[in-house]
Design brief:
The complex is a heterodimer of chains A (365) and B (422). Chain A has 365 residues and is an alpha+beta fold. Chain A contains ten helices and ten strands. Chain A folds into three domains: 109 residues, Butyryl-Coa Dehydrogenase, subunit A, domain 1, CATH 1.10.540.10; 104 residues, Butyryl-CoA Dehydrogenase, subunit A, domain 2; 127 residues, Butyryl-CoA Dehydrogenase, subunit A, domain 3, CATH 1.20.140.10. The longest helix of chain A is centred in the last third of the chain and has 32 residues. Chain A is globular, with a radius of gyration of 20 Å. In chain B, the strands form two sheets. Chain B has a four-stranded antiparallel beta sheet. In chain B, strands 2-5-6 form a three-stranded mixed beta sheet. The chains are: A alpha+beta (365), B alpha+beta (422). Chains A and B meet through strand 1, helix 6, helix 7 and helix 8 of A and strand 1, helix 9, helix 10 and helix 13 of B. Strand 1 of chain A pairs antiparallel with strand 1 of chain B. The structure holds flavin-adenine dinucleotide. Flavin-adenine dinucleotide (FAD) binds next to strand 2, strand 4 and helix 13 of chain B.
Chain lengths: 365, 422
């Protein structure tokens, strides 16, 4: 059967996240972006919503089951508030969710309770590399087996909270396969870049370059143990998270520009009464809905174990990245010159919007 | 029920059956009827009539509160899926040939109007015929030469003759899909009807608009012209003239009094809420046909689509194919959501029009792109790609042009009336 109704539990979660997005994240977003910092209290409050905790079974200290559908519903709502804040709140998932999906029993026992037992703690992951043709399925960071250790060499980029991280999940190319390796913060050969990444947006999110020079980790630190793991489900979960964040940001830009257009007057009428503006809004709303539904379907397929789930997550992600650029660009256009001024948030969302095409690995559900 | 995307089993089964129908009865004849405009595809019409009777579905229009041909399910209190099933059927038939689909007996837009704007008695009275012995058609006449998108400015008039208690209709309608098959007394067809929109009070504007059922054979109504078209040539598009056409009082759909409200116009709009996602579905069927054909041809020529690569690594063709798949899949989900809302009695004016906006875009973009990528193969009349390109364009024109549906969407999201946003 088809159905588009979230469950009661999901609806409660959506409502709670929506409140946090509106009352906490959004009001703090501009200052965080300009000041380059998100208040720790703000992050902790988002953490207390329990998105990650609710996706981890009791056996590992959590209180639920992972559902990609629930994940995309929540991420869209949170990103409606602010993208940088969302990525910060969700950073520990980058470490924990792949372990939940692909880790050995020992890895789950060892790490999951640690990540979720207390306050938000900086566990993170390193996937992105600094190359124009960065491809998560063809990494340049290399892993090689030497005795009972893996040796990692390469450089990672855009690693959130790397500086303070307790441990990182580093993705590397092992004989052509993308594999995750759990790297403790004090591993020899691991250098976290001194300066933060300087990007077009997400200034509030501390991200770093991470160098790996002959970093040795025990074979047991390979995600999934000796036989490793399938990277596709992890990648799909990253893509779905990015897609739903793109929908959230686009929706923020749509709502804001819609409300503005109903207030702003030109030539004696509200600008929203001009078809050139109204049609842009209609198309923005339509494309947001298109991306949202494709993301939901892909998430449902992932949960249901459908064989085309990975392809569909890819399509949802590619579509949402384009959609977010189109919608956020138009939001700026609808505000005209005012859209270009940093007093309004739309320019920030437009900078966010361009990023989704390369945000694979910054968020996961 | 939680969020779910498992197509209901009865829908999957029908899709499977209709694929064979599409291949056997439609695709093989597509070219012939494209090149023999105004010939009638009797084989298809009779086959569909027999098949639909066998399935217990007299009309493609969904039964009120019913579940298409899934009566069983209703009893078990399963969620209703009549509109969803209908959308899936239409998409599957349009995948075969959207012009043929428009030649499917069972009432089409005429029956849909009765369904949406008529009383239960009127539904019983006018819709029963579609389950009869002969295939039967009905059509809907809104458009006039001087009133297309601007439906409220139609000039057709209905005047009540109080002596005989009959409505007297006068007007000139154009672009009536299946108008010929609904009115002309072909031996092989049952007696059809047309639903004519006319004003009972010109001073009342929209509030005065009403729909009237005019039976085939009623004196004064006749087909005056059959159009020659860019595409969907197998489907007849008729001009119909009404001169002092008398119909019984109860042939007015819904309420006969002119309140100071816009009930009549709302009747028309309710029809559109119901039919727009279905028209969208038909456009997506054409788009899927074209995209599948392209992928087949690419595969034959050893061109693989490498899903999963970042954009920077994709070839131009891969990008195009991937973008088309994104468009098609998401557009289809918008149709499904709109009809799911209709099945569950949620107001769906916004979703309905959004699905039409999207399908109009997607249908034209995909078919245009497919012809482009296929080069000479796309442009040649040896294959159907060029025909699908011509057929698909209609999706963005009838049942509200892309612009009109954008207006509806914009009014919904902005909370504007027609006066505030024209
Ligand atoms: C093959 C075919 C089958 C059809 N079948 C039926 C049928 O069965 N029954 C029926 O009643 N009709 C039918 N139609 C008619 C169809 O619904 C109309 O053609 C359509 O509504 C557009 O009206 P029009 O052709 O008069 O164009 P116009 O209304 O003149 O529009 C011309 C252009 O102006 C744009 N436009 C108009 N108003 C606005 C506005 N307010 N804002 C912005 N842009 C605007 C339109 O989008 C379009 O681009 C059919 C048409 C065709 C071609």
């Amino acid at each position: 059967m088809y159905s588009f109704d979230p469950t009661e539990e999901q609806q409660m979660l959506i409502d709670a996240v929506r409140k946090y997005a509106a009352n906490d994240l959004r009001p703090a977003a501009r200052e965080a972006e300009e000041g380059g910092e998100l208040p720790k209290k703000l992050i902790s409050k988002g953490w207390e919503l329990g998105l990650l905790q609710a996706s981890i079974p009791e056996a590992y200290g959590g209180f639920g089951e992972r559902s990609a559908v629930t994940g995309v519903l929540a991420v869209e709502e949170m990103a409606f508030g602010d993208l940088a804040g969302t990525l910060a709140v969700m950073t520990p998932s980058l470490f924990a969710t792949p372990i939940l999906l692909a880790g050995t029993e020992e890895q789950k026992q060892e790490y999951l309770p640690k990540v979720i037992e207390g306050d938000w703690a900086p566990y993170t992951a390193a996937l992105i590399e600094y190359a124009f043709d960065f491809d998560p399925l063809a990494l340049r960071t290399i892993a090689a087996l030497a005795g009972d250790e893996y040796v990692l060499n390469g450089e990672k980029a855009f690693v959130p909270f790397a500086k303070e991280a307790e441990a990182l999940l580093v993705y590397a190319n092992l004989d052509g396969q993308t594999q995750g390796f759990i790297v403790p913060k004090d591993a020899a050969g691991l250098t976290i870049g001194g300066e933060r990444e300087k990007l077009m947006s997400l200034n509030a999110l501390p991200m770093y370059r991470v160098k790996l020079e002959n970093v040795k980790v025990p074979a047991a630190n390979r995600l999934g143990g000796a036989s490793g793991h399938d990277f596709e489900p992890i990648l799909a979960s990253m893509r779905l998270a990015a897609a739903s964040a793109a929908v959230g940001v686009a929706n923020a830009a749509f709502e804001y520009s819609k409300n503005y257009a109903k207030e702003r007057e030109a030539f004696g009428v509200k600008i929203a009464q001009k078809q050139a503006i109204a049609f842009m809004l209609a198309e923005m709303r339509t494309e947001i809905e298109a991306s949202r539904l494709l993301t939901w379907e892909a998430a449902w397929k992932l949960d249901a174990g459908k064989e085309d789930a990975f392809t569909e997550a890819y399509l949802a992600y590619m579509g949402a990245a384009d959609m977010a650029m189109m919608v956020t660009d138009r939001a700026v256009q609808i505000l005209g010159g005012h859209g270009y001024i940093r007093e309004h948030p739309v320019e920030m969302w437009m900078r966010n919007g361009r990023g989704f095409a390369m945000f694979t690995g910054l968020v996961i559900v | 029920m939680p969020i779910e995307f498992e197509p209901p089993k009865p829908i999957v089964q029908t899709q499977f059956v209709l694929k064979t129908v599409a291949e056997e009865m439609m695709r093989s004849k597509s070219r012939y009827f494209d090149e023999h405009e105004h010939e009638i595809p009797w084989d298809y019409i009779e086959f569909m009539h027999t098949a639909m009777k066998a399935m217990g579905a007299g009309s493609l229009a969904p039964k009120q509160n019913g579940n298409g041909h899934e009566g069983e399910e209703q009893k078990e209190k399963r969620p209703p899926i009549a509109y969803q099933a209908l959308a899936a059927q239409i998409e599957a038939l349009a995948w075969g040939d959207v012009g043929f689909y428009l030649c499917t007996p069972g009432g089409g837009l005429g029956a849909a109007a009765v369904q949406a704007a008529g009383t239960p008695e009127q539904r019983a009275k006018f819709l029963a015929r579609f389950a009869g012995e002969k295939p039967t058609f009905a059509a809907m006449c809104m458009t006039e030469a001087g009133a297309g998108s601007d439906t409220a400015s139609i000039r057709a008039r209905a005047v009540l003759d109080e002596k005989t208690n009959e409505w007297v209709l006068n007007g000139e309608k154009i672009f009536v899909t299946a108008g010929d098959k609904s009115l002309t007394p072909y031996e092989k067809l049952g007696k059809g009807f047309i639903v004519v929109w006319a004003s009972i009070d010109p001073s009342a504007g929209r509030a005065g608009m009403r729909a009237f059922v005019v039976e085939a054979g009623t004196p004064g109504v006749r087909v005056t012209k059959l159009e020659h078209k860019l595409g969907i040539r197998v489907s007849d598009t008729a001009a119909i003239s009404l001169v002092d056409v008398r119909v019984p009082f109860d042939h007015i759909l819904g309420s006969p009094t002119v309140e100071k409200t816009t009930t009549g116009f709302k009747g028309a709009m309710a029809t559109f809420d119901a039919t727009r996602p279905l028209v969208a579905a038909s456009g997506l069927g054409v788009a899927r046909a074209a995209l599948e054909f392209l992928k087949e041809k690419l595969a034959e020529n050893g061109v693989q689509i490498r899903y999963g690569l970042p954009r920077q690594k994709l070839t131009a063709i891969e990008r195009d194919v991937i973008d088309m798949e994104i468009m098609l899949k998401s557009a289809w989900l918008m149709v499904i959501k709109a009809v799911w809302m209709a099945d569950n009695k949620h107001p769906n004016a916004l979703e309905s029009s959004m699905s039409k906006v999207k399908a109009g875009d997607v249908g034209t973009k995909i078919t245009q792109k497919v012809v482009e990528i296929l080069g000479p193969l796309g442009y040649s009349r040896e294959f159907l790609a060029e025909k699908w390109f011509r057929d698909a364009k209609i999706t963005d024109i009838y049942e509200g042009t892309g612009q009109i549906n954008r207006l509806v969407v914009a009014r919904q999201i902005l909370g504007y009336s027609g006066a505030e946003l024209r």
